[in-house]
Design brief:
9 helices, six-stranded antiparallel β-sheet, single chain, Rossmann fold, Glutathione S-transferase Yfyf (Class Pi), Chain A, domain 2, 15 strands, alpha/beta
Amino acid sequence: MYVRHLSLADFRSYATVDIELAPGVTALIGPNGQGKTNLVEALGYLATLDSHRVSTDAPLVRAGAERAVIRAGVVRDDRETRLEIEIVPGKANRARLGGAPVPRPREILGTLRTVLFAPEDLAIVKGDPSERRRFLDDLLVARAPRFSAVRADYDRVLKQRNALLKTAGAARRAGGSALRTLDVWDSHLATAGAALLAGRLDLVDALGPLVDKAYATVSGGGASATLDYSSSLPPDSLASRDRDVLAAALAATVAATRDAELDRGVTLVGPHRDDLVLSLGELPARGYASHGESWSLALALRLAAYDLLRSDGGEPVLILDDVFAELDDTRRQQLADLVAPAEQVLITAAVAADVPAQLSGARYDVAAGEVRHVC
């Protein structure tokens, strides 16, 4: 799989830009703040319907414009498919696949698959649990786009249930009751949550050995890297990957915490409270890993994701956004050796010297909102 063409209209800093791409390595070179990351962010958005830099769509639309459009030609098995997404802040986005509109943007998911490593990935190791949940869920969707609907269903149920908990809690304190309606949403939460939880558990099982292997390579040996899933459910309930079993365990745990939830007006049990525990040797990486170890582990997570997607069939596009400047010489060379064989690698860097020599290929200079092909 590779991207042959990228076109932007009113996306970030670009009024319009068109770039022809090819398999192999493409480097986007230019000073910080000139728009390099905007280009790869657009490809990441086409692949995930999300930005790795911001949590809302509004910043993606150029100042003064009402909407932004991203278009790309994606080649897989010698067949090109056109992708298009129209981003309209405050309204529903619109998407096209092969030139035809689709009912929901998520129906384009899976057409383009990317693995993007960026400085923000350090937060997966050092940041809050939400960063690690997002990493897992994004990879889930990349592997199986149907999980986009699972994720959306769970978020919708959680929002509705939290609103009802506030109402029911207030009603209980006033001597009334809204618990019958809450029983219905408890059931919805258990069903949707079990589907998401089962997917995450399977993913962690598949990802663990790949992360350990990648970490050993980029770190030069040393401590082993392990992944463990920390759930708000009792540990013994996670032994099963069966959705019905997980749903029953989730429903029982929700029932046991209902009084506390009514008091606080928020759902205290479910995948939204879980965490991915990253460890090096016997110690959790968060709080104990050095800066270099944290970088190596973040990189290992992305490389493992790349290997997992590739093993599923269809090699993803690999994007390295301003990462070489963050690495020491040893890790820089190790990363370059690992990614050089990929079908398509897109690299952003402030200066050409940041790109290792073995990653020579096409180059674009990016400055003042213009993208110029150099070689």
